[in-house]
Amino acid sequence: MIPQDDSQADTAADRRAHNEQYGIREGAYTAIMQGAGENYLTAFALTLQASTSQIGMLNTLPAFIGTFAQFGSVMWLRWFGHRHAVVVAGAIAQALLWLPLLFLPMVFPEYGAILVIVCAVPFVVVGHFSIPAWNSLITDLIDPDRRGVYFARRARIMSAASFIALVTGGLVLTWAQHRGVAWAGFTALFLMAAAARGMAARDLRRLDESAVPVTAHLHLRLRDCVMAGRHGDFVRFLWFSGCMHFAALLAGPYFAVYLLRDLHFTYFEYSTWAATAIVGGFLALNGWGRIGDRYGNKKLLWATGLGVPILPALYLITDQIWWLMVINCLGGVVWSGFNLGLQNTVYDLVPSEERAGAVAMSNGVNATSAFLGTMAGGWLSTVLAPEITIGWFEVHFVSNLLVIFLISALLRLVVAIMFIKPLKEVREVEPISHHELFQELPLIKPMMDVIGRRLGHQP
Fold first, then answer.
1. If DSSP states are collapsed to H, E and C, what string results for 281-332?
2. What are phi and psi of 394, to 5 degrees?
3. Which residues fall within 8 angstroms of residue 95, CB to CB, at 6 or more apart?
4. Is the Cβ–Cβ distance between 143 and 16 less than 8 Å?
């Protein structure tokens, strides 16, 4: 290997810093789109009298169809390349697609709920077509040894931007609703989302991949993945991720329905509840990134995967808004670490040249599982009574959705117990006991540090 002189090293470092900066800026603008736009699609559909099943379709059908776009994207990258162009074009198209998504349901309100679903499909499909190219591009631009920290930092900034957009959106919609012009509130939010995505496209154009060798995007076929021994760990991971997505999405899309329809939350109360998850993720992500980089993604998935089953069960305990906000904040803490672990595990398990295909395959499995779980949850909402009766034991709920939340919790627990232990850590990481890992958890570690300093155990 030919050593680099100082000027070459400085240039490479500057280029890396440049790409990290614009990658984070793009993430912030995309988060504004999500906070002000995507997070209110369910509320928009409920305003148009969408049913529970239609809400489930809205939350999963576009992503399910988008899965096939990801496989098409991998084939495009294999044949033509142009990762950068695919990502930029996808962002521009998404910005433009906010317009029919907003105006068509308002022009034809009798078909409003159906039109929201129909218009959401191309919006999500375009975004999914860009995902393999984006993942392949950004992982080549970022130092592998800093990947966990970088993505945690990027996610924290995205959380802050999404939080501000989400709360602002709640205030705007509440103001508009009290004046009988909810349509004006949704118009303002969705136009803001379109503008933010346009700004993200501008920053994506500024990424510099000139010094990065173009990856040979091999087509990672499902048959080869299943049959080849070297992909066995990845297949086991796909089973785990897919089953957990099924169990989680059995309930996931219906929390908003439960709050807005059954508990009659205002838009501001709903946005505040949703924002607490962002706060939880914001506070925890740096800690999760540090744990994943230092102790491995298996430990990260173990720590968060056993917390995921608890979350939906907590909704059976209370319907008080402040407690529900605490529960959702805890959910933000747990899910931020779990999703970070899933993302980085895919990056670790496959070589760079197969990463785009692996990401598409992982997202495909997750989207299919999410779709099936959501459809199962929607069907259960039509057949379950709002009560649980076991012999002499009987409990009545305000909504049968709470029964679905309990079923989801039990399924998540089964998946975690069955699949987390067999997962394999492929990087060399520091060993750590479960007791020591508990002390390293986000929110726990700062408290332990404070207690230790006060007791004189630490300087």
1. HHHHHHHHHHHHHHHCHHHHHHHHHCCCCHHHHHHHCCCCHHHHHHHHHHHH
2. -145, 130
3. 194, 195, 197, 198, 201
4. yes
Give domain status of residue 96, yes or no.
yes
- For the chain, the domain total comes to 1
Tally of CB atoms within 10 A around 459: 5
141 confidence band (pLDDT: 50, 70, 90): confident
Asked if the structure places residue 447 within a domain, the reply is: no
The 3-state DSSP class for residue 389 equals strand
In sequence order, the 6+-apart residues with CB closer than 8 A to the CB of 200 are 26, 27, 29, 30, 33, 91
**Residue with structure tokens 């991971």?**
237
HEC sequence for 105-127: HHHCHHHHHHHHHHHHHHHHHHH
Q: Is 455 inside a domain boundary?
A: no
382, 366 Cβ separation under 8 angstroms: no
Radius of gyration of the chain (CA): 22
Contacts of residue 430, Cβ cutoff 8 Å, sequence gap at least 6: 294, 295
Helix (H) / strand (E) element for 396: namely strand 393-396
| Amino acid symbol at 435 | H
pTM comes to 0.76
End-to-end CA distance of the chain: 44
- Across residues 203-218, what is the average pLDDT? 67
Q: How many CB atoms lie within 10 A of CB 8?
A: 12
Instruction: Give the pLDDT confidence score for residue 312 in this predicted structure.
Output: 95
Domain, as residue range, for 30? 11-204+219-428
Which residue's entry shows tokens 């996808």?
Answer: 90
Alpha carbons 349 and 289: distance in angstroms, whole number = 17
Q: Which residues contact 277 (CB under 8 A, 6 or more apart)?
A: 328, 329, 331, 332, 335
Question: Domain with 246 in it: what CATH number?
Answer: 1.20.1250.20
Per the CB < 8 A criterion, the answer to whether 136 and 359 are in contact is: yes
19 within domain boundaries = yes
